[in-house]
Design goal:
This protein is mostly helical. It is 73% helix and 0% strand.
Length: 164
Amino acid sequence: MTHELVTALGPLLAAEASAEAPACGAEPGDLEQAVWLRLLERLDAAGPPADPQGWVRRAVRSEARRSRRRARAEQPYATEPAEDGGRGPEQRALAAAGERELRSAASRLPGRCPGLVAALLAPEDLTYREIAGELGISQGSLGPERSRCLGCLRRLLTPEVAAR
């Protein structure tokens, strides 16, 4: 039964999909594939349609409407997802090495500075309130502590940067 339906409906489906595709911005083959899938699902659930040709016409139009709705809802990316700000693998490797060097230098700082700098560099982008809570210090003393730690870090990194 399925083979006879495919043979009988194939040319009609191809013609209907070709006619509807330009108006909805879809490829005719995509519309055909969606309708064939709907037909198979219908055969599985309720058997063949009473009026197969009419069903195909309605199904193609329905899939074309669905395609138009989907196209309107899609938002294009501002840039390609694979793009990384124009940075190639070499630049990314150098940036990663610099970040490792920064974290290593921060771990050599005195007192609470390693924890403070690590919290400032955290990918979660913590607020001052969250950092102060994490370190167990008052939010008001965080600014001066941060300034002191960054000064220490600057002095620690200056000879390393100058050696390059």
